Amino acid sequence: MAEIKYNTRQRDTILRVLKAYKDRHLTAEDLYDRLRQNGCSVGKSTVYRYLEALTTSGSVRKYSIPGLKSACYQLADSGCAEHYHLQCSRCGKVIHIDCNEMRQLIQHFEQQHHFRIDMARTVLYGVCADCEE
Amino acid sequence: MAEIKYNTRQRDTILRVLKAYKDRHLTAEDLYDRLRQNGCSVGKSTVYRYLEALTTSGSVRKYSIPGLKSACYQLADSGCAEHYHLQCSRCGKVIHIDCNEMRQLIQHFEQQHHFRIDMARTVLYGVCADCEE
DNA sequence: TTGCGTGCAAAGGTTTTGCATGGCA
DNA sequence: TGCCATGCAAAACCTTTGCACGCAA
Question: What is the pTM of this model?
Answer without folding.
Answer: 0.78
